[in-house]
Amino acid sequence: MRDAERRRTLLDAADRLVRHHGHAKTTIADVAREAGVAVGSVYLEFASKEAILEELSTRAHARVLSGMRRASRDLAPAAFEASFVAVLEVRVERLLELRGQGQHACELVFCRASGVQSAHARWKQEEQDFLRGLFEDARDAGALGDIEPRMTATLVQRALVSLSPPMLFELSPDEARRGAREMAELLLRGLLPRARPRRDVRSATR
Q: What is the pLDDT of residue 145?
């Protein structure tokens, strides 16, 4: 087995175990057994279980951010309102998908494991950078007023805490989706120039 293939096999095995049994009950020996390799083969790729968790968490977070980026690329910067709604809806939808992928799948984006926390911290910065770019493009296209994109991205990200784990996972899917649309509407009221007429932006994905 080549190195890249072995690493992918180990990560896929660990992913299945963590999603169904939780990170606390998953051991290196379990991962080796699930992958059909010797324990030593696991340590050739990963120094510890935390290193495996960090990579799994990075993959889970990346799926959320990739969806947000794709949603923003589907519309021109001048169509900022629809793009912003789509970004928030996809963000929530991807997190909801994770919740449905196993009893403990949510631990990959929210738990006390140091690997998950490290991955989450990087994702927060990546999400903030993405939002800043979104606001910069919309401002330059004339869709926003004279805002400061970095500060705006920080404030919006703070507002999205209620649509992030663990609070998001306490909502039903319908409540979460409705919350994404309502949050987008609320934030747009503060982001758009005051003199600009408002239009209906209830759901950009319908």
A: 86
Find where tokens 């994770």 sit: 98
- This prediction's pTM: 0.88
Helix (H, G, I), strand (E, B) or coil at 174: helix
DSSP tag of 206: -
CA distance 150 to 163: 20
**Burial bucket for residue 171 (CB in 10 Å: 0-12, 13-18, 19+):** middle
Domains (range + CATH), the chain: 1-46 (1.10.10.60), 51-191 (1.10.357.10)
d(CA 57, CA 107): 8
Q: What is the arithmetic mean of pLDDT over 146-165?
A: 95
Q: Pick from 149, 161, 85, 153: which is nearest to 120 by CA?
A: 161
